[in-house]
Amino acid sequence: MKETGPMEETAPERDTAQAGTGSAAGRAAEPLLELSGLEKHFPITSGLVFKRQAGRVHAVDGIDLTVHAGETLGLVGESGCGKSTTGRLVARLLEPTGGSIRYGGRDITHASRRELRPIRAEIQMIFQDPYSSLNPRHTVGGIIRGPMEINGIDPPGGRDRRVRELLEIVGLNPEHYNRFPHEFSGGQRQRIGVARALALDPRLIVADEPVSALDVSIQAQVVNLLQRLQRELGIAFLFIAHDLAVVRHFSQRVAVMYLGKIVEIADRDSLYERPRHPYTHALLSAVPEVGLESAPGTGPRERIRLAGDVPSPIAPPSGCRFRTRCWKAQEKCAAEEPPLVRLEGNREGHLTACHFPEAPTVHGRDVVLDPALA
Amino acid sequence: MSTPFLSVQDLTVDFHTEDGVVHAVDGLSLGVEKGTTLGVVGESGSGKSVTALAVLGLHNPETAKLSGEILLDGRELIGAPRSVMERIRGAKAAMIFQDPLTSLSPYHTIGKQIGEVFRRHTGASRAAARDRAVEMLTRVGIPQPKLRVDDYPHQFSGGMRQRAMIAMALVCDPDLLIADEPTTALDVTVQAQILDLLRDLQEQTGTAIILITHDLGVVANTAHEVLVMYAGRAVERGTVREVLGEPHHPYTWGLLASMPRLGAPVDVPLRPVRGAPPSLINVPSGCPFHPRCDYPALAGPGLCRAERPELSPHRGHGDACHLTLARKQEIVGTLVQKREIVR
């Protein structure tokens, strides 16, 4: 099943979600990746012999996203918000339960293994844990060769030469070809994972928390490496992370997820400087900053403390999913799900799903909602 | 000046392994006063956690060799008999760990685990211990404490488990609390709740806190004083304002410049510390940071490789580096000007 041709401009949310990707070239072109109404529900079964479905985990519950060629889209949110599931859906490691995934103009939502084969080479993943994502019994050379062997790719000059080239690109010594993963530190292992992802010249890399397991000084090395690759090779990234500062550093556009939904999406500056969704505000204000103006007892810094934890995705709250922790929630929030739209005063492409959005900037306010802190 | 409430002098912890002797902590000195928080910062393997375990006598005496001096309220803890350490742990000094799920027993209710500590140290009755557990859960902000006291750890969320651990650590009103990466496993919004909670509890009880973390942001928001560790040694020490505002050690500069920050200009690339932390079996000679440092040439020929810099001065803002103060100030000025370090 092949669907080519220009993208239809009928669906309004698709129209808006595509816009606002800053200036740069290729904006008018079709996006590299396009998710619409994407859903992944995991069934919960009970019973030993006769399994029946007792409920569903709404891990990803209808999201629209686009990633353009050569662009980085950051996906942030707390644990359990569905950001990793989204990444796995994009790499087609999971089968979506609803919605569609279009890659390079083709619908790959339910594409078979055979149909996916040429695409698999173009979409690669980098995983969080550099220890469990490399096979300990294979040499580094074997690990990086693997994708080329599976896909029957013979680069000019041979696979071994390509592997050495890749090792050099990611800043490892090509002499280490025959070493095993345990001989490397965490940061070096993550570089091996990056080299493996690059082996097939991908156009899109799904990076799922690629630096969160690393020490600060090593984390910066890997972030700089990924940034250089993106610049030099023009690879698009879906950069999934919980660390808002890392995402800000690496992404051109950023989407914030909460309980399986996108609550806000915008280009980087717009999102970090003029966040409109209360959850984005809360997330940003919760990041402990080194700046001395935030040292104890000094200076005003916006400080919002959310009460409680993220609700269960098995039975998410009605209406707006954030309402149970939101200080602005009213009856409307429980009754009606807020649409992801562009608010007045926002830049094009800055979409927010909130009935009672924040003023564009808030300074020096102190909202404490935690009963324990009151 | 009198001795601080917790005073560690020249602490050394060596582990004897098949590969050789691991010098996990090498000549570390620190002090914490009541009612204040000392942030201990460093990367994995810098000796932060080993120091914490040594203070509480939780190291394995078979493999770990300790020397130096650990004075808690004037009492020497190194070599103290087990019975003494057992009386001190939980009652005078307590600890919170990074992962609350593995630190709580899955077979016992939260209330029982909190009450157990209380009963052991005070000999209270079961009923009294249960009341105390409910009181502690209330203090750490668990909703419906009377019901939740009978829950098992798996029924709590990550943030609530960390609160329960704090409740357990504080049940006997300890004078010293060591928190080892207490928020690393938590989401940012929950991390903010827990750090606020620690700060509020400290205001109420005047506990001395040692907060071990790799996150300078957490330190800036919670601690009064900071100790930066590298390869088992203290490389810089001072108040938060001194260390983060006028950092003196090249490793501290490296940490600050490699951290992406919300307030930093986004067009300036991160400046990582090159290389990787050293093996603690073969610690580099002289200054352990010299192979990764950008400035040994400025300190004098071969000096950093040959001679180990001492942490000086002994009190106040000090650092272990051979560069002259004027040179350090000059370099910091340049880094700030290049916007690699944002104050």
From TrEMBL, chain B:
GO terms for biological process: peptide transport. InterPro entries: AAA+_ATPase, ABC_Ni/Peptide_Import, ABC_transporter-like_ATP-bd, ABC_transporter-like_CS, Oligopep_ABC_C, P-loop_NTPase. One of its GO terms (molecular function) is ATP binding. Pfam families: ABC_tran, oligo_HPY. Keywords: ATP-binding, Cell membrane, Membrane, Nucleotide-binding, Transport. The keyword GTP-binding does not apply. NCBIfam families: oligo_HPY. This is Peptide ABC transporter ATP-binding protein. It comes from Planobispora longispora.
